From TrEMBL:
GO terms for cellular component: BRCA1-A complex; BRCA1-BARD1 complex; cytoplasm. Keywords: ANK repeat, Cytoplasm, Nucleus, Repeat. GO terms for biological process: positive regulation of cardiac muscle hypertrophy; protein K6-linked ubiquitination. Belongs to the myotrophin family. PROSITE patterns: ANK_REP_REGION, ANK_REPEAT. This is Myotrophin. It comes from Danionella cerebrum. Its main location: cytoplasm. One of its GO terms (molecular function) is ubiquitin-protein transferase activity. It is found in: Cytoplasm; Nucleus. ANK repeats lie at residues 70-102, 103-135. Pfam families: Ank_2. InterPro entries: Ankyrin_rpt (IPR002110), Ankyrin_rpt-contain_sf (IPR036770). Gene3D superfamilies: Ankyrin repeat-containing domain.
């Protein structure tokens, strides 16, 4: 199935390391470490696979399931960008494998839409519901373009 013909409520942009100037995503260019968890700083670290920074920013257990700016949870960002180590860390800290974002997209759907077979495999092993449908009415299997992902979802 060609996803360009379906409506999805987000367009993922996973930055390439070094592509983003962190001062552009932090309030007034100031470092938000030291107790304040800036959503933009956390989202940047999740997308770029900066596990040490994510560990510093997720100080409380409930933070792994907190809805971030933009209506998504940390697991969605890791799944979107194919960050397998990040995905495993978040799941080990109790991230809800089936948590929907504000559009009803689960981490499994995010990984499927972006073609990240390893993330799909990890999420399924951790109990992701492969039958949940996204806002377009399609399950992960119905939305998958990759044969590798389709075989994991069958």
């Amino acid at each position: 199935m060609n996803l360009s013909n379906t409506i999805t409520p987000y367009i993922s942009k996973c930055p390439v390391a070094g592509e983003l100037d962190m001062t552009a995503v932090m309030d007034d260019g100031e470092n938000m470490a030291g107790g304040d968890m800036g959503d933009k700083e956390l989202m940047w670290a999740l997308k770029n696979g900066d596990l040490d920074e994510v560990k510093n920013l997720l100080v409380k257990a409930e933070d792994v399931n907190r809805t971030l700016e933009g209506g998504r949870k940390p697991l969605h960002y890791a799944a979107d960008c194919g960050q397998t180590e990040m995905l495993e860390f978040l799941l080990s800290k109790g991230a809800d494998v089936n948590a929907p974002d504000k559009h009803g997209i689960t981490p499994l759907l995010s990984a499927t839409y972006e073609g990240h077979a390893t993330c799909v495999k990890i999420l399924l092993e951790k109990g992701a519901d492969k039958n949940r449908k996204g806002p377009d009415g399609l399950s992960a299997l119905e939305a998958a373009e990759s044969e590798a992902i389709k075989s994991l979802l069958q």
